[in-house]
Amino acid sequence: MSYIFAVANQKGGVGKTTTTVNLAAALAARGQRVLLVDLDPQGNATMGSGVDKRLLKTSVYHVLLGLASLADARQVSATGNYHLLPANRDLAGAEVELVGLDHRETRLKRALAAHDGDYDFVLIDCPPSLSMLTLNGLCAANGVIIPMQCEYYALEGLSDLVNTIKKVHANLNPDLKIIGLLRVMFDPRSTLSGQVSAQLEQHFGDKVFRSIVPRNVRLAEAPSYGMPGVVFDRGAKGSQAYLAFAEEMIERVKTF
Ligand code: ADP
Ligand code: MG
Q1: Whether residue 228 has its Cβ less than 6 Å from ligand 1
Q2: Whose CA is nearest to atom 17 of ligand 1?
Q3: β-bridge pairing 75-77 and 82-85
Q4: Is the CB–ligand 1 distance for residue 66 below 6 Å?
Q5: C-alpha angle 41-78-25 in degrees, rounded to nearest 5
Q6: pTM for the whole thing?
Q7: What's the pLDDT tens digit per position in 115-136?
Q8: Ligand having the closest approach to the CA of 41
């Protein structure tokens, strides 16, 4: 059985893709069989996995619309050592095209169900919205990983996401729960970072992961080489944090 996690936060630029790509590669480095699903039409996770989004013949778009199977559309990330269900701009059309179809919220779930034995972990990189695509991610998942920057407005957006997760839990996917909040782009010298971080721990207790990912330029440089940061520069502080996070996730799933 695979553990399926959606990496979600409706804000853009908060570290979803960086987290998905690096967690995927870090889990793979620990011997786990991983599938990364890129659910964002921007295709950043695809490019960051070393696959050119402009050259895709089949992608997650085709899988969602029933035009290709997952087995046909998936590729191997040579740099990350995991499987990738890639995405590109085609996916932007899916939002509208899905509306008229049956089981529109559970299409990804159904596609993944056929491959339950293939992977230990499936990680879904969600787009920055609470859209039909994100809904497909949340319906397919056992849990949600929420990357957060420790800044003043971080908590504000969180309640919308938490409410959406509650609604999906109540109506569409009773398995869904918040696995945890991951503090990313953390600046240990900033007083505000420290305060928001402490607030998160107060409100969410052990739903806040122990691992903290610092702001680290090597993580930002890696995608332009088509590599996860943990492969591009394993020794960098940010990479070490994601490797520790992968350990924490492996421990965490044992308690499920
Ligand atoms: P999202 O997927 O939520 O839009 P990204 O993962 O693409 O966010 O991150 C937004 C930007 O911040 C990207 O340019 C990325 O390289 C950079 N970034 C993400 N995490 C870090 C980090 N820990 N340190 C430095 N830069 C980061
Ligand atoms: Mg992204």
Answers
A1: no
A2: 220
A3: antiparallel
A4: no
A5: 75
A6: 0.98
A7: 999 999 999 999 999 899 999 9
A8: 2
